[in-house]
Structures are given as structure tokens and as C-alpha cells.
Amino acid sequence: MLAVPLDSGDDSAELPVQLSTSSVDERTARTLARIQRAQEDPAEDSAKVAIRLDSGDAGDPFPSDSLDDIVAARARQRETEEHTLLDLTALEQRAAKAAAAESEPGLSKTSVAGDRPIPVDSPDPDARPNFRGEVAAIRKVLVECGLCGFHVQIPVEFFGKTVNCPSCQGNAVFTESTLDPIKDEILDRLALETAERRAIYNADEEPSAWRELWRSSAIKSFLVGVGLGLLVLFAMWSAMQVRRTRARAAMVEEAEQQGWRYARNAGEELFHQPWCRQLDGRRIGER
Question: Is residue 127 part of a domain?
């Protein structure tokens, strides 16, 4: 504190108090600056960061309790600033989501963001997802316009309803009969899916020698050749049987002309005509 001569008793009493107050403000500023430097650079030596007062001062205007209060106040201020920053960040995120929701094509220009609920940051795990638009896009089928023959891809829900054709701009009703032009395409898709499914599941099976032999083209060609050979042999045997039957019929006809009588039923004996006495009552094979 500076010693200032007093000219008058009333005015001179306030001057030392004002000087001491200014010095207190300077020391407070220096102390706060040291505290801030200590918080910004925690690796600095504690001896350099320690809060000290000038040794030449007459008294300690900042007791230890007041320094602790200043540090605690500074910590509370920092926590308040952090919470404020987090709140501002959350508000900015919500505002961005609300703006994105407003810019969706399903909303009109007059709609307000407050009309629809703002999605929360953490979704509810029990909430059921809504894939209505995606499912409707997947369930589209290809049909043919009855007016111009243009193929139109429409949802299943439009069957039996009047739909505007994008090609001829005509109103056509799509029914089950309009699926006739694309039945072949649907069957081809089903066959392709079946072939792919067989290829996938057969690839997982263990290879077998008998299965590979049965699927090979060589064994199939061999079996076809054997079948054709058996067919040729059967045709040859049938031709020989026909030839033998015709020869027998010719021999029987010639024997009958010579006077022999053959038995018509199985087990009967063959006799010669009665005019041949020496062969009467004998078999043909007997002599």
C-alpha cells in the first residue's frame, strides 16, 4: 500500500482504500492467470504453477480458503461450459434432422416440422420397422398394356384397377389375362432359380464315383448302344421265326397234296390215307 499525504480529513481517508482495491484487482488477475495456465499445462512443474503472493506485502489479501473457492468456481464454470456445448450440439443435430425430414418429397411446402415427431437419437429396440415403401417397390410385376402392347411394371395392388399407360397415355385395366405375354418369362425365371438351387445344393454334397459315372455322357452313350443292339437282335429273331412258319406251312400243304393227313389238334397221331396199306395205323416217324 502506498503512503499518500492527506490534505483534508474527509477526502484523504478514501484514497488509501482505493489504492488498496486496485492492487487487489491486479493480484486477483495475476492469480487467475496462473490458475488458467496451470489448468492448460498440467505437465508444468508444480513449483512454477503454485500460486504465490509477493513477500513484500504487508498482509495476505487472498487466504487459502479464498483460493480454493476460486479454483472450485473455475471448475464449476468449465463444467457449465461443457454442458452448454453438449446441449448446443444436440440442438444442432435435432435441427439438421428436422430440416432433412422437411426436405422429403412426401411433405408439402406448407408442412411444419412440428407436425411430425422428430426422431430421437437412440431408437426404441421394441419398435417394429416400417418397410412399406420398399416392399411395395419389390412386389411390382410386369404386365402388357392392352391398348398399345407396352410392358408396364405395376404393383400387385393395381390389378383390376384403371392404370394410365406411360406409352400411349391411355387408361387400361390390368387383370390376370394381361399376364399371358410374360408367362414364358416367369417360367424361365423359375427354371433358372431351380437350376441355381440344384447347383448350389449339389455342390455341397460329397462326390461319389457311381454318381459321376451315371452323370457322364460315356455311360449314357453305352446304354443307348446296348438298347439299339438288343432291338436289332429282336428284329432278326422275329424275321427268322416268320420264315420258319412260312416254310412249315408250305411243307404241310405239299404233304396234304401227297395224301398225308396231319393232326389239327395237339397230341393226335398223323395217319396216312387208307389206300396205303403198309403204312396204315403207323406214325410218320416209324418205319
Answer: no
pTM over 0.85: no
HEC states along 114-140? Answer: HHCCCCCCCCCCCCCCCCHHHHHHHCE
Tally the domains of the chain: 3
Q: Residue 190's CB: how many other CB atoms inside 10 A?
A: 10
Query: Tell me: the pLDDT tens digits for 116-162?
Result: 555 555 656 566 655 555 544 556 667 777 777 777 777 767 767 77
Task: Give the residue numbers spanning the domain of 145.
Answer: 137-202
What mean pLDDT do residues 48-54 have? 45
In one letter, which amino acid is 122? S
> Cα separation of 104 and 204, whole Å?
47
Burial class (CB in 10 A: 0-12, 13-18, 19+), 143: buried
Strand-pairing partners, residue 272, are 260
